[in-house]
Design goal:
The protein is an alpha+beta fold and about 130 residues long. The protein has one domain (about 5-125). Helix content is about 45%, strand content about 10%. The chain has six helices and four strands. The chain has helices at about 15-25, 40-45, 70-80, 85-90, 95-115, 125; strands spanning about 5-10, 30-35, 60, 65-70. α3 packs antiparallel against α4. It is globular and about 40 Å long. The two termini are about 20 Å apart. Pfam families: DCC1-like. One of its GO terms (molecular function) is protein-disulfide reductase activity. InterPro entries: DCC1-like, DCC_oxidoreductase.
Amino acid sequence: MCFKIILFDGDCNFCDSAVNFVIDNDPKFIFRFASLQSDIGKEILKSKNISIAVLDTIYLITDERVYTRSDAIIEIGKNIEWIWPFAYALKVAPKSLRDFMYSFFAKKRYRFFGNKNKCRLLTEELKKRFLDL
């Protein structure tokens, strides 16, 4: 695997917007995407011995590791040059505090942003970046 896989909540408006942000700021096509609810998303989690019951966590799967929550966001930020200084600033905060804030937001994301009722129209090129299409 030469690319990095982002597994996200496919029903969450905020998560959908975050994926669109990464797509728009990933000119090297480093990332591939799959929703946690998709068969391929479940298969990837199962292969990494991760429970498929938890949908409030973002995962970044690389050759070496599985990153979750705030660590996943920081690692994704490393690959988006102009945002990396901001993501790195998060890294100086203790992981327990970062993940507490992540979990707090994740529990309220549907209330703040709602559930997805429409998707971005994907070009053939973008469809290749989604593992579950």
